[in-house]
Fold:
Amino acid sequence: MNLRRDVFQAIADPTRRAILLLVATQTMTAGAIAANFDTARPTVSKHLAILTECELLEQHQNGREIYYQINARKMKEVADFIEPFRNMWDDRFNKLEAIMKNYQSNK
Structure:
């Protein structure tokens, strides 16, 4: 059975998040990406395959080189999904901060 990975499985890994940060500013080859990590190139290639499968990265070929770039549309989908949760936690932390300030001023 071939289970398709989802975006959140892909970004759960710190190496894949680091790859996304690298590629966010410039298009890079697998070799250039791998040079930033202290792991074997096949390991980085597996991470790239997962990110590509989840559509977080796009790849295009120029001659013999394959270049990777961020898929901004997919990243926006992820950000849009996470935004309500971020707002909820911001509200909770703001309420906690208000309670703590009130508690400290009553001492």
About this structure: The two ends are 62 Å apart (CA to CA). The chain has five helices and three strands.
